[in-house]
Amino acid sequence: MSFEKLGIIKPILSAIKELGYEKPTTIQTRSIPLVLAKSDVFATAQTGTGKTAAFGLPMLQRLRNVTPEARVVRGLIISPTRELSIQIYEDLQNYAKHMSLNIAVFVGGKDLETQQKILKEGVDIIIATPGRVMEHVEKSLDLSHVEIFVLDEADRMLDMGFMKEIRKIHPLLPKRHQTLLFSATYSDKVRKLSKLILTKPEFIETSKKNSTVDTINQVAYLVDTDKKAPLLAYIIGSRNFRQVLVFTRTKASADELVLELKKDGLKCGIIHGDKTQANRLKTLNEFKEGKIKVLVATDIASRGLDIEELPFVINYELPSIPEDYVHRVGRTGRAGRDGVAISLIDIYEKFDIRAVEKLIGMKIPQEVVKGFEPDPTIRRKDQDEQKLKSEHKKPEPKRTKKVQPKLEKPKKEAVKKKAPTSKKRKTTKRD
Ligand code: AMP
Fold first, then answer.
1. What angle separates helix 82-95 from helix 277-288, to the nearest 10 degrees?
2. Do 182 and 226 share a domain, yes or no?
3. Residues 114 and 242 in one domain
């Protein structure tokens, strides 16, 4: 298949050619004709599959005719985070560089008045976070001419509690408009939302539910909690990783980790919810330019980061929500390129890794790095404790103690008691 065959017009064809896109990805092949035919679309697509162009290219094409003296907002894209919104904006600007569309990105952290001025000058397409859209609506934004409404990473928007805003935005759109809903996962919440906002949608499912991209090599290294930072520094140093994205569960552990890595002489940056937008963008650019080797990020702050050919992602801590594992490792192996995703797991994460494996439908090989072998006494002590606790509640048949965690069904009591580092484990909703 080619972009020409999909009916993409010349100005867009030249722009994507300049970006080096040779042929459409699967999601693009399936979505472009449907969007051009004005259908509502419900697509489950992981990040890295080329989903932005899957809705962006046909959207630009549909809205290509502009009346410069009477511009109205005809396209609205909402996304969960500032970073993702900016990323979509940059992609759309690139795709529309030979067109005369005015595209604007409105996110929090930027001056509302400046954004209003931009609106007054005439905008065809807005990309924004739901909260910011509502702020503009309360001022003067008119959504009654919107022809195409896109919800990107809808699952994440719902996880972040944006349903309220979406419910408010939807009735402000004209009765006849096209809605495109993109979500990495197919949760009940997303299904409910789709019922509310889509009319006779076409469904696109490009890969197995919650599966990770095929081109990513995944491995988990078993290690004791206090050896994680040294192991991480060792992996980065000994394998000469030049650009690596490291995920932590919380802002606090991200801060602690950066201090540790700096002691090892590694140039690190950090992106999390406490950093200002300007600071996050500066860090991201330094990372993209290779000025910093290691970027430490929390889950929500990292949404939408698009770094060309990112080869390595390391989970310093597994996410508290298994679906986030899919989002995290989706930062590598993008658009068919090879990537490596390494997870450092301690004894308290052995149940978390099983939850991830259950979700992605495959086992992640577990290995030990020489010199960083887990202390068997710590494991035994933990297992003894778990055993004692469960025996106390319900007598169990005799079990043999295992040094390495085996993939067996976790006992409920053990799951509840697994996290002793409560300070580190807490995650704020809008981190
Ligand atoms: P996305 O899933 O939209 O975040 O896209 C992931 C990456 O793939 C981005 O760097 C895009 O620029 C790139 N990309 C999207 N479509 C194509 C394509 N057809 N050929 C090559 N790269 C692409």
1. 60
2. no
3. no
Same domain? 53 vs 195: yes
Instruction: Name the domain count of the chain.
Output: 2
β-pair partners for 150: 77, 180
Cβ contact 201:41 at 8 Å: yes
pLDDT band of residue 405 (cuts 50, 70, 90) is very low
Give 75's strand partners: 125, 148
Considering the entire predicted model, what is its pTM?
Answer: 0.59
CATH of the domain at 89: 3.40.50.300
Residues contacting 330, CB < 8 A, separation 6+ = 46, 47, 48, 184, 212, 213
Are 221 and 286 contained in the same domain? Answer: yes
pLDDT tens-digit profile of 29-80?
999 999 999 999 999 887 778 899 999 999 999 999 988 888 999 999 999 9
pLDDT mean over 157-176 = 94
Pocket test for ligand 1, best of 5, 8, 17, 19 (most atoms within 8 A of CB): 19
Whether residue 235 is found in the same domain as residue 160? no
Domain encompassing residue 93: 10-205
3 vs 59, 89, 143, CA distance in Å? 14, 21, 31
Exposure letters 120-143 (e unless 16+ CB within 10 A, then b): eebbbbbbbbbbbbbbbeeeebeb
Same domain as 165, residue 101: yes
| Residue 373 CB contacts under 8 Å (≥ 6 apart), including other chains | none
Span from the CA of 79 to the centroid of ligand 1 (angstroms): 17
Measured between alpha carbons, how far is 109 from 20 in angstroms, rounded to an integer? 33
Q: How far is the CA of 47 from the centre of ligand 1 (A)?
A: 9
Asked if the structure places residue 425 within a domain, the reply is no
